[in-house]
Each structure stands twice: as C-alpha cells, then as structure tokens.
Automatic annotation (TrEMBL):
Membrane-spanning residues: none
Biological source species: Nocardia jiangxiensis
Protein name per the record: Short-chain fatty acyl-CoA regulator family protein
Gene3D superfamilies assigned to the protein according to its UniProt record, in alphabetical order: lambda repressor-like DNA-binding domains (1.10.260.40)
Family in the record: Belongs to the short-chain fatty acyl-CoA assimilation regulator (ScfR) family.
Domain HTH cro/C1-type: 10-64
A Pfam family assignment: ScfRs
UniProtKB keywords: DNA-binding, Transcription, Transcription regulation
Annotated InterPro entries: Cro/C1-type_HTH, HTH_RamB, IrrE_HExxH, Lambda_DNA-bd_dom_sf, ScfR_C, TransReg_Diox_bact_type
Cross-referenced SMART domains: HTH_XRE
Length: 470
C-alpha cells in the first residue's frame, strides 16, 4: 500500500473543526507529537488513524483521497495556463496550494469558470447575437449545470435514496417498467399517459405534460426504456419538488438563469436512479463485470444510459468502480462530461485527438478500447462506442454522438473490457492529454496548438512537425 501523506488537509480539517493539536490528539487517541508529525508530513497517515478520523468526524471515505486533489490540481493548471505569468508557477506550487488551501483553490476555479462565461457572452453581445448578455453577464446555464454534477462526482445521494425508496415501496420489477410507472401516475397522481401518433413532419418533443388536463403525452418513437425514463422524470417533478429545491438552493453562486436547467438535470438524475435503482444495478454491474451491453439488455435501456449510470455509483458504503463518462460529437464538442475519477476535462480548447472516443465514429456500433496515460502519469482503461439513438427518415438530420467510459487502470481486472489487453505493460499506453492548449507533451506529433503560457521558439533553419518549437 502506498504511503499517504496528507498533513495540510489534516491541518485544514482541525482548524475547520476549531480544534487544537491536543484536542485532535484526544479525539483520535494519539499523542500531540504524533499529530504534529502528521501535519508536517513527517509521518504518513495509517489505516488505523484514517478509520478513527472517518469515525470521529463523519468524513467521506474519499476525503483524504489523492484523486480529489488531482482533479482540483488539473483544474488549477487550466486557470494559470491562460495567464502569461502563470508559466512561472511550478506544479509543486500548485500542489501545495491545493493541499493547504483547498477551499481557496476551488474558489479560484469557480471564478475562472464564471470569467470565461462572462467573456463568451460579452463577445456574443458585441456581435449582436446575445441580447441576454446585459441582463446576466455571467450565466452559462448548460456549463453551470455540467460543472455542478462534475464537482459532485456525478452522485446525488438524496435523489438516489428517494428513487430507490419509490422503486421498493411500489414493488416495481425489471421488465415492462414503463407500464408500471404509467400505473403509478394514473393511480397515485391521477395523470393519464397517452402515446402521440407519429407525424414525420412534426416529430414533437419526447415528453409533454398538460397540468390542466393532467395528460402526459409521450412520443411514439421512444423505446420502452426511453418511455420509462421520461415517465420517471415526470415523477421527479411530482414527488421530488422539495428535495430538488434544497439541492438547487445549496448551489452557491448558481445564476438564476441556470437554476431552471439544474432542476431539469436533477429530475433526469432521479429518472436514471429510478429506472436503474442503485442497489440492484450495482449488484448486477459487479456480477456482470460491468458489461454494458448485458446491463442494457437486462434493464431494457440504451448503451448511453447504462454508461451514465455507471459513472454515478459512488455511494460511500456501496461504491462501484469510479468511472468517467463523456459524450462527444464528430467535431470533438463535449456535450456531457461526468467524472468520479481524477481524469481531467480541459475547458480550454478541444480534447485530445489521440483519445479513443474519437475513433468510435470510424466503427459505428462497435466498442473500442484503449489504455491511455495522462501527463500526470495516471493510466486509464477507456472504452468508447457510438450511441444507438436514431432519427427516422432518410432526409432527417442525424444525431451522431460517441460515448466514452473510463476508469483508473487499477480497476481494470474488475471490468470485462480488460480481457486480452496488456494492462501490465506500461509501454502499450497511448499518451494522451486534456487538450493541446494545456498539454505539456512538447514532442506530440498530433499537437495542433502550442501550450498556453509556454515559450515558443522559432528557428528559420529547421522544419519541424509543428510551426513552433519548445
């Protein structure tokens, strides 16, 4: 087991709880000198001390985990990379900032995100394309909600518990869940569910609810699993109003324009948790070695739905493999990103072209795998596949996405997709990065842009692969 040094974080915990070193020593049943050594990283945290800390202070088990810091460190690299003077800040200084002042570090990341949003809207306003920019110069509803779930590792315990309780109390079962949820809406909420006749010229929304007539209309094109999801989302708006309101109120700094979008995001989270109830889904995922296609068949949902749900299995007492989930289009635009890992998504520029997620478009419907290593030395097992959502009609515009699911390589043996891969040979890992503008791999042949903040050297006497050198 790797030794864990977490002195600054332990000190921050002690100060936050208003304890002296002697007070913390009494709470843990250790000597004051031992506490002092732990806080100055002269001694590592032992398993016994970690257990006492978690018990005495009701900490999340990942409070001292390095993955938590790694995500924040990577986000800070983005923050400082955009400032020319940021190149003078060493990785060691960023690590120290995160370790000693994690709250301040998170505030910096939050300010950076809002500054980006303000700049984007000012640019649109100057071009005359965004009339709302003057009303709310820092609102980025889509990005704000995406960051909300990302910062919470895509796990909302309150909604998970509520969905599982509803599933159990109504004795719901797998198979025909859309019919069962239709019955609940009719018997418990006096809402009728009808299927809209398909009109190829006016396909309409997936779900539409009329509060006056108390009629919920679903699109005929939806599969049984998709109908169950939409019915579950409607149940979220009916049964989880107070819970979602509390979660939204707890989102400090969330602009008003983003709160409505967050409400929809929370309802969709509840829907996924009801269609794929935590304990049942977690048990099947473990038993089937996280085989996405087998899970999709058993729970009657799509490939993307299973991938997204797998990224949420972070209940402290019943954790699944910590996954990172992403959805992207052919242009590399990331429309969904959730992570329970240290894997970092850059918000500066595009994603890495060497990432296997982009290869999925070359073989639609086939699962592609990759062992990839990030610049921080962490290695991940990735799988990617195009989505199975189709738009009927030869002339209809197609919805074309690829989804990716990744986890730290240390979990590879628990996952069926590691079968036949050289997971013990570090030489086979593909070297990828968070995006060219923040990646420090100077010798990458696929580099499209120089790293922000890094010096650019020009030599008239050399013809390099890229028009600049390190």
């Amino acid at each position: 087991m790797q030794k864990m040094y977490a002195g600054p974080r332990l000190r921050a915990l002690r100060v936050q709880r208003g304890l002296s070193q002697s007070g913390l020593a009494r709470a843990l049943g250790i000597s004051v000198s031992y506490v002092n050594q732990l806080e100055h990283d002269q001694r590592p945290l032992t398993v016994q001390v970690l257990l006492r800390l978690n018990t005495s202070f009701a900490l999340d088990m990942c409070y001292f985990a390095r993955d938590t810091d790694a995500r924040l460190v990577a986000d800070l690299h983005d923050v400082f990379a955009e400032d020319p003077e940021g190149a003078a800040i060493s990785p060691a200084e960023i690590d120290d900032l995160v370790a000693r002042m994690p709250i301040a570090a998170r505030m910096l990341v939050g300010l950076h995100r809002r500054a980006h949003g303000a700049l984007e809207q000012l640019e649109r306003a100057s071009e005359g394309t965004d009339s709302s920019a003057t009303e709310s110069p820092i609102a980025r509803p889509y990005e704000d909600v995406r960051d909300y779930f990302y910062d919470r590792r895509n796990h909302v315990a309150e909604l998970d518990a509520a969905a599982e309780e509803l599933f159990g109390s109504n004795r719901l079962t797998l198979g025909g869940l859309d019919l069962q949820l239709t019955r609940i809406l009719r018997e418990q909420h006096d809402i009728a569910v009808v299927i809209r006749n398909y009109d190829p010229l006016k396909p309409g929304p997936k779900r539409r609810y009329d509060p006056k007539s108390r009629v919920l209309t679903l699109a005929r094109r939806l599969s049984h699993g998709q109908r169950a999801f939409q019915l579950a989302a409607q149940l979220a708006f009916l049964t989880q109003t107070e819970t979602m309101a509390r979660l939204i109120d707890s989102a400090e700094g969330m602009p008003d324009l983003s709160r409505g979008v967050l409400r929809i995001g929370l309802a969709n989270y509840f829907a996924g948790a009801l269609v794929l109830p935590y304990t049942l889904f977690h048990a099947n995922a473990e038993a089937l070695r996280y085989d996405i296609e087998l899970l999709a068949a058993k729970f009657e949902v799509g490939f993307e739905t299973v991938c997204h749900r797998l990224s949420t299995l972070q209940r402290p007492e019943q954790r699944g493999v910590p996954f990172c989930f992403v959805r992207t289009d052919r242009a590399g635009n990331i429309s969904k990103r959730q992570s329970a890992t240290a894997f970092h998504f850059s918000q500066v520029g595009g994603s890495c072209p060497l990432w296997v997620v982009h290869e999925a478009f070359s073989a639609p419907g086939c699962i592609r795998t990759q062992i990839a290593q990030m610049p921080d030395g962490r290695t991940y097992l990735w799988l990617a596949r195009t989505t199975d959502e189709n738009t009927p009609g030869y002339l209809a515009p197609k919805r074309d996405f690829a989804v990716g699911l990744g986890c730290d390589l240390t979990y590879a043996e628990k996952i069926v997709y590691s079968h036949g891969l050289p997971i013990n040979d570090p030489r086979t890992a593909v070297l990828i990065g968070a995006g060219c503008k923040v990646c420090d791999r100077r010798d990458c042949a696929q580099r499209a842009f120089p790293q922000i903040g890094a010096p650019v050297h020009v030599d008239d006497n050399q013809a390099l692969t890229v028009p600049y050198g390190a």
